[in-house]
Amino acid sequence: MACSLPVIASRKTGSAEVVRHSVDGYLIDDEYSLSQALNDLFANSGLALEMGRNARERIANNFNSEINFQRITEILSANPA
Fold it and tell me: According to DSSP H, which parts of the chain are helical?
């Protein structure tokens, strides 16, 4: 995602917390297969580019080091040892 590429990940992992299906990548499962995801991306290069841009924007805005540090600090200050 940080490289402006659409992601294909399993819905059975924690990836669904980051990847938005059909927005910045595909989440595969029993209903949507890896081959379907690959076919969709190869058949529509414009869609792949758009998903890649969405993926990069999501990572830059929601998962950068400053935001992560702030979230960790908030968690630690709310739960003193």
Answer: 34-43, 45-62, 65-78
Instruction: Quote the tokens at residue 60.
Output: 């830059």
pTM passes above 0.85: no
SS3 26: strand
Per-residue pLDDT of the chain (81 residues; tens, 9 = 90+): 999 999 999 999 989 989 999 999 999 999 999 999 999 999 999 999 999 999 999 999 988 888 888 888 988 888 665
Instruction: Give the amino acid at 8.
Output: I
List, in order, residues 6 or more apart from 22 with CB less than 8 Å away. Answer: 51
